[in-house]
Amino acid sequence: MQHKVVAIVPAAGLGRRFGEDRNKPFEMLGGKPVILWALEVLEKMAEVREIIPVLKESDIQTGTELFSQCGITKVRRVAPGGSERQDSVFNALHFIMEKTSLVLIHDGVRPLLEATMARRALKALSGCDGVVIGMPPKDTIKEVAGGIVQQTLKRDALIAVQTPQVFLYQPLLDAYERAMNESFYSTDDSSLVERNGGKIRVVPGCHTNIKVTTPEDLIVAEAFLKTQRAGS
Predict the structure, then answer these.
(1) CATH classification at residue 166
(2) Terminus-to-terminus CA distance in the chain, angstroms?
(3) CB atoms within 10 A of CB 196
(4) What is the model's pTM?
(5) CB within 8 A of 27, min separation 6: which ones?
(6) Which structural domain range is residue 38 located in?
(7) Which residues of 105-115 are buried (b: 16+ CB within 10 A; e: fewer)?
(8) Which H or E run contains 167?
(9) How confident is the model at residue 11 (pLDDT cuts 50, 70, 90)?
């Protein structure tokens, strides 16, 4: 049986580091809003049957109109965002009716999504509860407390985790429900599944798959786009 893949795209964050007067998912990048880049990739993926963006209440009408105008036909519902990213994804999980679905979660402000990355994660899901993509950190990582180094971590054992992340629906929902009931919060979906005893596999990501967190990240993303276009 072929499982339905539902993509959840959280984009309801407050963007405190980006600037309170700016709306990060709708900032322009390469001539179109940041969120549209990832949605267009997911729209073209035959594996993805539905896309559920998660937006701030104040953005839902604007987003719905934008997605329709740009031909994103797989968006049939937009979930309302919560106070934290975890609340937002939890809201979207309740929009999924088919309990045998596979859930692909990708940050709406990671515009340089590549379909090959998403497919790599989907193919690796067999035998696991979830798959994350990630890259080895380029810098040495130190654990610090009170401004004092506690230990230097072994870089070859570390992974900087990205999205998309892919999960079986039921283990993901179970992990989310437990976390919400226990008021446990994390910014990473896979950590909730790990915490609930789930098995998570890691597959390679890409250094260009950056998250737009600050205005400077838009400049970097624009540079990556220009490089991609020049090479195509």
Answers:
(1) 3.90.550.10
(2) 36
(3) 16
(4) 0.94
(5) 18, 33, 34, 212, 218
(6) 5-231
(7) bbbbbbbbbee
(8) strand 160-168
(9) very high
